[in-house]
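Researcher: Re-running this chain for the archive, since the previous output was lost when a drive failed. Same request as before.
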Amino acid sequence: QVQLVESGGGLVQAGGSLRLSCTASGGTFSSYTMGWFRQAPGKEREFVATISWSMILTYYLDSVKGRFTISRDNAKNTVYLQMNSLKPEDTAIYYCAADSHITWLSQILTRPEKYTYWGQGTQVTVSS
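Model: Regenerated structure tokens:
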């Protein structure tokens, strides 16, 4: 059973930066595709970014391209989400997710139900 723990959320002004971390335990981290999702109040969970187990492939939500960067350190069992130029609309609870059998197609990678393991989430609030 894989356990995921996110950290790094907080309150930041618009234009600022945050780096989220998600550390995994209980599984073979290097074999998992890792994703970040977010959920704002009253909205559905939304895909943000994903990275393949090999670190070669990444995929982003259009609205965060050029501002957010996903990366991973397989030696530390950790995936990161560097968020720059934050906007008030980025305010949400951010979740990391993992799956070892996900197909690398955008229409699959962006669907929350395709990921088996989830963290508890970390709050990101961007003030205007």
